[in-house]
Amino acid sequence: MKEHYNGGKKLIISHIADVDGLSSVILAKLHYENIDYCLVEFSELEELLNKLVKNDLYKKYDEIFITDISLRPSTIKIIDANEELKKRIRHFDHHLSEVDVMNKYPFVNIVNERNGRLECGTTLFYEHIEKDFKYKSEYLDKYLEAVRSYDTKGPFCGNKYGCTLVMLYGILGIDNFINRFCNGIKNGKDPITPEDRELINLELERRREYVDVCDKNLIRINLNGYNVGVSISESYRSIVGNELSKKYKDELDFILILNFQRNQFSFRTVRDDINVGEIAKSFTKEGGGHLKAAGMPLNSETLFILNLIKEAILKKEKKIELSK
Ligand SMILES: [Mn+2]
After folding, report:
1. In angstroms, what is the span from residue 204 Cα to ligand 1's centroid?
2. Which of 114, 172, 192, 254 has the CB geometry, 3.0–4.6 Å to 177, for a possible disulfide?
């Protein structure tokens, strides 16, 4: 969790893990003069809301935006029970959950698709501020489309600029990324420099090597009847997951990436017969996502998967021993 409090009258809470989550914060920072912001994993939202409620901190805000984060039933309960909090919340999300049930709450706003176009957290939030947004430009349109395209269709979306943004997020880190693209959008000009391009090219090479290592170390487990490839890795989860799912699509139902730094599992698949969003949700109420990309935290409900991984490693070691 990353929190920035500057005494603003508005607060935006967004998803820490990707460019879509960061981009709502970038737009909000540009649109509102002084805005506080928190970046969280889905599983951290409740903790943050509890903190805001406990100290009456939320009362200093006239609006609290929650972008690119789906609300769990228990989180909805916290909000729904508090009239003062409820009227401050504005929610902009595109993750598929029980949309019909959820959207009955006036403060919940999930839009996955509109007029045949898949939406993302950033485009939904932008719609909200678009009328008075001061920094409209051709560059802004290109940026928004790049974020939307990558976030809804993944690394094979065909939007080169979207892929570049995701690479730069990995290179620059959160604060630099936010600052850089705040300036870019403000000036209506692409802020990516020739030096960045160099770094991106180096990073592309490194990424190819990284995916090769993940491939070599892929651990096969059977998880509730699914054939799963597990990668214990911390970078490029979408590329690792998608590349390996594509390579092993006849053998493996999906790729599960275990990231100990984020305490998080990510699911990726290229298969049309697998819905990893549903599968993630079946393990823990904190899991969820889309058809082909999903996530869940490492918690008491998902910890058993570590045992399956351990057994698979031991089995592999034994096989190597025997073949010596
Ligand atoms: Mn998103």
Report:
1. 23
2. 172
Q: Residue 156: CB partners within 8 Å, gap ≥ 6?
A: 242
In terms of Cα–Cα distance, which of 54, 134, 96, 103 is closest to 279? 96
Domain coordinates of the chain in residue numbers? 2-141, 216-322
Looking only at Cα atoms, what is the longest distance across the chain?
Answer: 70
CA R_g for the chain? 20
Q: What number of other Cβ atoms are within 10 A of residue 6's Cβ?
A: 8
List helix spans (H) across the chain: 19-31, 45-54, 73-80, 83-86, 99-102, 121-129, 138-153, 160-172, 174-187, 194-216, 237-247, 276-283, 304-322
Tens digit of each residue's pLDDT (9 = 90 or more) over 229-277: 999 999 899 999 999 999 999 999 999 999 999 999 999 999 999 999 9
Enter the DSSP assignment of 8. -
110 DSSP 8-state letter: B
Question: Near ion ligand 1, which residues have CB within 5 Å?
Answer: 20, 68, 120-121, 151
Which residue type is seen at 112?
A: N
Direct distance between the N- and C-terminal alpha carbons of the chain, in angstroms, rounded to an integer: 47
Q: How far is the CA of 239 from the centre of ligand 1 (A)?
A: 16
| pLDDT per position as a tens digit, 40-75 | 998 899 999 999 999 899 999 999 999 999 888 888
**CATH code for the part of the protein at 216-322:** 3.10.310
- Report the alpha-carbon distance of residue 109 to residue 131 in Å, rounded: 19
| Torsional sign, CA 6, 190, 21, 203 | negative
Q: Ligand 1 centre from 247 Cα, in Å? A: 25
Check residue 208 and give its pLDDT: 94
pTM across the whole model: 0.84
- How many angstroms is it from 112 CA to the middle of ligand 1? 10
Would the CATH topology of 2-141 be identical to that of 216-322?
A: no
CA-CA distance, 113 to 116, in Å (whole number)?
A: 6
Q: Which CATH architecture has domain 2-141?
A: 3-Layer(aba) Sandwich (3.40)
